[in-house]
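pinned: reference chain
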Amino acid sequence: MAYRFGAWSPADVPYDNLLNTRFPWLFVLFFGFFPAVSEESLFRMFAIPFLHKLVRYLPVAVVLAAFIWGFGHAGYPQQPFYIRGVEVGIGGVALGFVMLRWGILPTLVWHYSLDAGYTALLLVRSHNLYFRLSGAASAGIVVLPLLVALVAYWWRGGFEPEGGLLNADEGARWKNRRKRRRWGVLRVRLPPWNTGRSPIGCAWRLSRSSRPVCSAC
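pinned: its structure tokens
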């Protein structure tokens, strides 16, 4: 999009200050982690439900949240001034629908991978082996859960069944537990009505049987 509309930004070498540290991978980790968590929490997890309550139409809420997030990136030196907000906002629309369909984890992984990836480019392109390994490891650390899942899939011959892993299943179990507790309390309170020769006890027994079950009846 930038090339199509003749956008311009200065050619510089970003994040060159990370070369002055003994642990450049820390810079990559934190620069990927903090923006991913803060922005996805604010502009996806919070903004979309909040705007949905205001505008009462989910697609509009997704678009508004996306372009608010997009124009939050418009402070970089570039021309025309709006180009960054437009291109990032369009990507935010796609991310919003991804979150609604698959949850927040895919957008977190994407955001971390993107930020950590272009932050680590300077290290990966270095001639220093330590810098190259640091950049590749810190930017690619998000792949570790995928590797663990693939090894587990190969070792067990398949993935875990979905039963019991979904939030809906957890909610159903909680409702059933509350139901059992409620009826359990009723079972504890019922025996006094069913003991002795009280009228309530006799009436309850008569409703359960066609024959009298006590001498008083």
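why pinned: Residues 182-196, 210-217 have pLDDT under 50 and may be disordered. Residues 178 and 184 are 10 Å apart (CA to CA).
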